[in-house]
Design brief:
By secondary structure, this protein is an alpha+beta fold. The protein contains four helices and six strands, in the order αααββαββββ. The chain has helices at 2-5, 10-30, 34-42, 59-65; strands spanning 47-51, 54-55, 69-70, 74-80, 87-94, 97-100. A four-stranded antiparallel β-sheet has the order 1-4-5-6, with no helix packed on it. A two-stranded antiparallel ribbon has the order 2-3. The longest helix is centred in the first third of the chain and has 21 residues, at 10-30.
């Protein structure tokens, strides 16, 4: 929901992300192959793309300017899991026009 509205309470967003991170760390410790299975599932048919919606920054940044900063323009990270090592590409766009790739 935070990705859609960009107006959710920052403390709730960070708390949910931290809870998810703790859960995955626990699962990975219990089952060392869990991280690889998760990455493989997220990569779909050899690759995937993620859009940056918000940043949390460091603990010091969070104290100064809040816990979540919604990113104002389109930024993506794409990866190809069929290469070794994985190919990762970052991009920043103005609309659909790539400013930085």
């Amino acid at each position: 929901k935070a990705a859609e509205t960009k107006s959710e309470d920052s403390d709730e967003v960070v708390a949910a992300l931290l809870d998810l991170e703790k859960l995955m760390r626990k699962r990975n410790k219990e089952d060392p192959d869990q991280a690889n299975r998760t990455l493989k599932a997220l990569s779909g048919n050899g690759g995937g793309s993620w859009r940056l919606i918000f940043t949390t920054g460091t603990i010091n940044t969070q104290k100064r300017s809040g816990r979540v900063n919604y990113f104002p323009i389109k930024a993506t990270q794409s990866f190809n899991s069929e290469t070794d090592p994985w190919l990762i590409e970052n991009g920043i766009y103005l609309g659909d026009f790539p400013l930085i790739m």
